[in-house]
Specification:
Shape: globular
Largest sheet: 3 strands, mixed
Radius of gyration: 21 Å
Mean pLDDT: 93
Distance between the termini: 38 Å
Low-confidence stretches: none
Structural class: alpha+beta
Number of strands: 10
């Protein structure tokens, strides 16, 4: 974010920060200033989908902004372009948060730090199991300048057998997810841009080799032990890595 904000300042660009999966994370700038995710750009956007670290009981989201003029424009966009009821000054949408979701979020917000700490503890336990398998999998990276709130716990499988591993884990009773199986440039919606396979090799590798394990704030040691030992068994006691 520091580099992005520097480029934006020099080129007079707006920065819209997507922190849908990082609410509560801290970012430390090179001068030592510590800032929350979602508050660094001109606009921060977050999601309160039920599975998020701060989740509502249905679809919900929020926008963060420190500029009063920009905030007023955003409020208008979210409410049919209106500042005064029935008077639309611009074309907007209907994107209001219903009061029930607000009540749920207001109660859960007080526990956000507790939820994050629980996820971080679960991730640390996963790490302890998987460090012995780092020849075959890569554990999530933690940047020294940022905390990780672990909306997901995502491993990188270092060979071409990610899909086989997923199948074996599910047969053993461990649910997994591949959240982003296709990089953006290979989706049909962006075909008009003219990109082809090979143009973004890092994104393509992430789509082909990552797998996410169960992660939430209520996980216990027994669950993590079962998931981790099952994955290690699949790595070392099946045909998965034969001849690799």
């Amino acid at each position: 974010m520091e580099q992005i904000l520097d480029i934006a300042t020099r080129r007079q660009l707006y920065v819209i920060e997507d922190n849908a999966q990082s609410i509560g994370a801290d970012y430390t700038f090179s001068d030592g200033k510590r800032t929350k995710s979602g508050t660094m750009g001109h606009i921060g956007c977050t999601s309160f989908y039920p599975s998020k670290n701060l989740g509502a009981y249905g679809d919900a989201g929020a926008i963060f902004c420190n500029d009063d003029t920009l905030a007023q424009q955003l409020k208008m966009v979210c409410n049919h372009g209106q500042l005064q009821k029935y008077h639309s000054d611009i074309i907007g949408i209907n994107s209001r948060l219903d009061s029930f979701q607000g009540v749920v979020l207001n109660a859960k917000l007080k526990k956000l730090d507790t939820y994050i700490a629980a996820r971080q503890a679960a991730a640390d336990q996963y790490d302890q199991y998987f460090r012995q398998a780092e020849d075959n999998i890569t554990i999530p990276y933690r940047a020294p300048y940022s905390t990780h709130v672990f909306h997901q716990y995502t491993l990188t499988v270092r060979n071409k057998n990610r899909d086989i591993l997923k199948q074996q884990l599910e047969q053993a009773g461990v649910p997994t997810m591949i959240y982003y199986p296709y990089p953006m440039h290979l989706n049909r919606a962006f075909a008009y841009l003219g990109y082809k396979k090979g143009d973004f090799p890092v994104a393509e590798a992430a789509a082909a080799h990552t797998i996410s394990l169960p992660m939430h704030s209520e996980m216990n040691e027994a669950q993590i032990k079962f998931i981790s030992e099952t994955l290690l068994h699949c790595l070392y006691h099946t045909l998965l890595y034969k001849n690799e």
